[in-house]
Design goal:
The chain contains 31 helices and 20 strands. α20 crosses α22 (about 590-595). Strands 6, 7, 8, 9, 10, 11 and 12 form a 7-stranded mixed sheet that branches. With about 750 residues, it is an alpha/beta fold. It folds into 6 domains: about 1-65, Nucleic acid-binding proteins (OB fold (Dihydrolipoamide Acetyltransferase, E2P), Beta Barrel); about 80-230, no CATH class; about 250-420, Rossmann fold, CATH 3.40.50; about 450-520; about 525-600, Arc Repressor Mutant, subunit A (Orthogonal Bundle), CATH 1.10.10; about 605-755, no CATH class.
């Protein structure tokens, strides 16, 4: 079923279905967005759940599809609501508001807020049509007034407090706020505060002084351009800690939260930067809304450097700190270290449970840092010594007290749940203890709808939009990996900015095709590929070889030689997909990277493809050899002697004609090595090196003269294959010959690379 949202209030709303029936919905039934990312008029797709006790049936599994263009928005002009209360503001603020009513429509004036003994005044303004079209701002924006001489970070909290005071919070744009301060240095101070912090909202700063100076009406618009068009919302590499910029995976969040409430332990696994930490934060937020104590535990930074006893103690202290519960009868650190850690932990958890009366949820992130057989800075976790004791303590606790704790673990490596017995023969206490999400143990890639929602919401603030075709390309090229999508969009944003192109702007498919080629050559893109692939190389070499094979030779016959576990891991990570029985790499960018890096490992090449590879590689090596021979001979023999040596070898070469030799004698030394002037063959260069091996021995180290001669001969033999005049050689060419060529040319390439 499809329809348009026509009413939103609090946590609920109503949808006018395409059947003209009305369906109510709750925020928990949204799958690809939060309720704060919905507006009246938004076009959605949903399923219908029949209700017996309500006037309207319920909409569930709701996915935002995009705005219905038939549902036009009312024109908004500058002005002021007659009910707006000027008395809530001081004289300077009243003057500022009289200016702002020429720019926005002033809708609401709130009562003053007191935060940490500081008082702030606020109001709401509705963006005009110009703002809406330029910055994709359709909801009301909070303006915070701070008349303190020095700007303080707590001022940024005032917007959150203000929103909580307003009954219809959905009318407010939570992604953007305006701060007006008496501090004339608010811009540099704000920049310093936000530099290294997680972005909760975009802040547009003004000082009282500049707004009291009666600037022209374009001043505010230009300030918005500066802070929206210049900001790069795509580039944030920190985990998302709020609902405003959290996209997709809502179904994961609700599913795991329900499991936590029912004391079912869960595991979430996925590629690096696939959104696992952001997901844990979202789970924590939702649990805390229902008053469940939820503790986020970064294993890499908090537990891996400790022994297992201190790890348990750290968790207890973090729970008390998070919940704010006063510590009473808590075991000391020394008690944990004295050999009673498991007993102490159980006692302390049960004490906490009595205080909370609700399940305590432990959210373990980067679980591989304390998992056996996974490379770690602490060998006692890696060899299983600490691992077994730690998890035995937790498992013993929840088996005896099933309602007390619930565990969620997240990481890249699922060994904690997959391996029944450790390498030392010990039983894995967590084997099979982690239930899968309804979506599976691995984070699924972003769908097209998820991509559309994320890039157009973030891009909208920045004056960028991406049409459906481009969003589809983003999803396919990036394999639905949210971080890679954002990385690519960040690159596109900077390219548009550097080119001086105007905004707002829609990224066309043709421009995208240009951008993706440039992006794949950047260090950022290569760094991402290596980050992903190194996990496979380190932990799953079989899986890496499968991925490489798919890139080089396709997946038609891949299942014939690959075990099921390898395929399951790759499918789980979202690196591959099964399309009509054929396995394919999901990430087109990674596929192209692997093909480029390992292109000379492709098998089953046609004779024409072999010829192309031979020609290209020999030509590349020949260019390096020219440089090597020219420089080495000139340095060690001098220009005159070096030229004599080169001409001698050319004279002995059967393929070089007499007129070529005559011409060569008249050339300078440097011209001899210029391919546009002189025919200097690969065979001539290789002969010079072999005949004068003592001069080149330090470059071709660990290689004997005979080995080098043999490699050059093999390469020279292959050189004839692409030349149609050597039909006999071509006919006698075999797969074994081609493999010999690859082996020899690879050796020479590596030696030359080290030289260069």
């Amino acid at each position: 079923m499809k329809g348009n949202i026509y009413y939103i209030e609090g946590n609920c709303g109503r949808i006018n279905g395409e059947d003209n029936a009305v369906y109510f919905f709750h925020k928990n039934d949204l799958l690809n967005c939060t309720i704060y990312q919905l507006s009246e008029g938004d076009y959605v797709e949903f399923e219908v759940e029949k209700q017996s006790n309500y006037k309207n049936d319920k909409a569930v599994k709701i996915r935002k599809k995009g705005a219905d263009i038939s549902n036009s928005k009312n024109t908004v002009n500058p002005g002021i609501n007659p009910k707006f209360k000027f008395d809530n503001f001081n004289n300077d603020e009243k003057e500022i508001l009289n200016y702002l009513k020429k720019v926005f429509y002033l809708t609401y004036s709130g009562s003053p807020l007191t935060i940490a003994n500081s008082t702030y005044r606020y109001c709401l303004v509705k963006p005009t049509n110009d703002f809406s079209l330029t910055f994709n701002l359709n909801r009301e924006i909070v303006i915070i007034f701070s008349d303190y001489v020095s700007f303080e970070p707590r001022t940024l909290d005032a917007a959150t407090y203000a929103i909580e005071q307003i009954s219809s919070k959905l009318r407010i744009d939570r992604g953007c706020q305006i701060v007006i301060s008496s501090d004339e240095k608010i811009e540099p101070k704000l920049s310093a505060i936000l530099k290294d912090t997680n972005l909760n909202s975009i802040v547009i700063p003004f000082s009282y002084k500049e707004l009291l100076s009666s600037p022209n009406e374009g001043f505010v618009l230009n300030r918005f351009r500066k802070y929206l068009f210049d900001v790069d919302l795509f580039s944030s590499s920190n985990p998302i800690q709020n609902d405003i910029f959290f996209f997709g995976r809502r179904d994961y969040v609700f599913d795991i939260v329900n499991k936590c409430k029912n004391n079912i332990h869960s595991g979430i696994f996925g590629l690096r930067r696939s959104g696992k930490t952001s997901l844990l934060y979202a789970i924590k937020r939702l649990l805390k809304n229902d008053n469940y104590p939820a503790i986020y535990i970064p294993c890499q930074s908090q537990l891996s450097s400790s022994n297992w006893q201190m790890a348990l103690y750290t968790i207890i202290r973090d729970i008390y700190k998070e919940t704010g519960i006063k510590e009473r009868n808590v075991h000391s650190k020394q008690s944990y270290l004295d050999g009673n850690a498991a007993v102490c932990f159980e006692d302390d958890i049960l004490t906490l449970y009595k205080e909370t009366s609700k399940t305590i949820v432990l959210l373990f992130d980067e679980i591989e840092a304390i998992t056996f057989d996974v490379p770690s800075d602490n060998s006692n976790w890696a060899d299983g010594t600490y691992y077994i004791s730690f998890w035995n303590a937790l498992r013993g606790l929840y088996l005896k007290n099933p309602n007390v704790i619930s565990i969620v673990v997240a990481g890249t490596n699922p060994r904690i749940n997959e391996i029944p017995v450790l390498h030392n023969g010990s039983t894995n206490p967590m084997y099979g203890q982690l239930a899968l999400s309804n979506q599976g143990a691995y984070l699924l890639p972003f769908t097209l709808i998820d991509t559309q929602n994320m890039v157009n919401t973030l891009g909208g603030y920045m004056g960028l939009s991406f049409d459906d075709h481009v969003c589809s390309s983003l999803t396919l090229d990036c394999g639905g990996h949210p971080y890679l999508i954002r990385l690519l969009c960040s690159f596109i944003n900077h390219e548009i900015k550097d080119a001086g192109l105007s905004r707002p702007r829609t990224v066309s498919q043709s421009k995208y095709n240009e951008f993706i080629k440039l992006f794949e050559e950047t260090n950022e893109a290569t760094g991402f590929y290596l980050m992903i692939l190194n996990i496979l190389v380190t932990n799953y070499p079989k899986e890496f070889n499968v991925l490489k094979e798919l890139a080089l030779n396709g997946g038609k016959y891949i299942s014939n030689f690959v075990d099921d576990n390898a395929l399951l891991h790759l499918l789980g990570y979202g690196l591959i997909e099964n399309v009509d029985g054929i396995y394919k790499i999901r990430f087109k960018t990674i596929e192209r990277y692997l093909l480029g890096k390992y292109k000379y490992e492709r098998t089953n090449l046609t004779i024409e493809e072999q010829k192309q590879e031979i020609q290209y590689r020999i030509n590349s090596v020949e260019m390096s050899l020219r440089k090597l021979v020219k420089n080495t001979l000139a340095t060690l023999k001098g220009i005159n002697k070096a030229k004599e040596l080169v001409l001698k070898v050319m004279t002995e070469h059967s393929a070089i004609q007499s007129y070529d030799l005559t011409k060569a004698n008249s050339l300078s030394y440097n011209e001899l090595f210029d391919p546009s002037v002189n025919k200097i063959y690969f065979s001539v260069l290789s002969r010079i090196i072999v005949d004068n091996f003592d001069l080149f021995a330090n470059i071709f180290e660990n290689t004997s003269k005979d080995e080098l001669r043999n490699d050059f001969d093999i390469i020279n033999k292959a050189r004839r294959v692409p030349d149609h005049s050597y039909t006999e050689s071509s006919q006698n060419w075999t797969q074994s010959d081609f493999l010999q060529f690859r082996h020899s040319i690879s050796k020479i390439e590596e030696l030359l690379k080290n030289y260069e």
